[in-house]
Amino acid sequence: MEKQEFPSFNDIRFAAVRIKSFIHNTPILTSSAINELAGCELFFKCENFQKVGAFKARGAANSVMKLSDEQKKKGVATHSSGNHAAALARAASVAGIPSYIVMPSNAPEIKKKAVKGYGGKIIECKPTLKARETNLEKVVNETGATFIPPYDYMDVIEGQATCALEFLEAQDNLEVLMAPVGGGGLLGGTALLSHYWDPEIEVYGAEPKGADDAYQSFKAGRLIPQTNPNTIADGLLTSLGELNFEIIQKYVKDILLASDDEIVSAMRLIYERMKIIIEPSCAVPLAALLANKSKFQGKKVGIILSGGNVDLEKLPF
């Protein structure tokens, strides 16, 4: 695909205005204790305080708000077992339109409750990708709803990019930006916006060692699908999207890995030092940074804390 098809800087700025009343401009927190440990100055953009508890609220709201009046009447649909399901259901609810969410039968009850709470209609299916896609196709054919993918979709990428825009507007002296990578919507949007803002900013992705398809793809220069991922970072199990891979190849400096033990340690560090709730996936950038401290010595580093939807009954520490 041609580069000009990616959202422009103005597209992202317009998206920020479009979704402003539907999301939080989340705070940026610091911790002198973590700075000392890391050997650099860290700034944490707290999307764990975002609507629906994750950055996904941005891309979903932007996608829904960009629909035509005719599309809105028929609603939106997706398949998801995670934060995108709740984010899309909420965005649709705020817009006053129907949402149809295909969810695997083994999706966490807390996620199903969230979708129902936002007025989404859940269509349960077997926990396989084929079942999810088949049921989604049936729903779209029956309702005429617009399919909003969770990450590999330009309007979603454009919406996720507004997080980095807010970050750099508030903290414009950052030398490095870091975000976790699963499907790549957040990292892709972050890299795109950072390139427009200042090409000198170094953007890093962070990924679990047990689900490292983005790392493998980045190093190989071609998309390598995720196979049998095994990590505590359950929000990063999906395969990297094609659109996002293209952006990441162009504008990301490197993708760094962290083990599950390192992820749990970083998660606990944030709980203890910053007194905030984050999910395992959210701790991956800090874990990767602490495992590669020499790369960041003395730098001003921005980390996007992607979400805080964690089952408190199952904390790993």
Automatic annotation (TrEMBL):
<dbReference type="InterPro" id="IPR001926">
    <property type="entry name" value="TrpB-like_PALP"/>
</dbReference>
<feature type="domain" description="Tryptophan synthase beta chain-like PALP">
    <location>
        <begin position="21"/>
        <end position="307"/>
    </location>
</feature>
<keyword id="KW-0663">Pyridoxal phosphate</keyword>
<dbReference type="Pfam" id="PF00291">
    <property type="entry name" value="PALP"/>
</dbReference>
<protein>
    <submittedName>
        <fullName>Pyridoxal-phosphate dependent enzyme</fullName>
    </submittedName>
</protein>
<keyword id="KW-0460">Magnesium</keyword>
<dbReference type="InterPro" id="IPR036052">
    <property type="entry name" value="TrpB-like_PALP_sf"/>
</dbReference>
<dbReference type="InterPro" id="IPR000634">
    <property type="entry name" value="Ser/Thr_deHydtase_PyrdxlP-BS"/>
</dbReference>
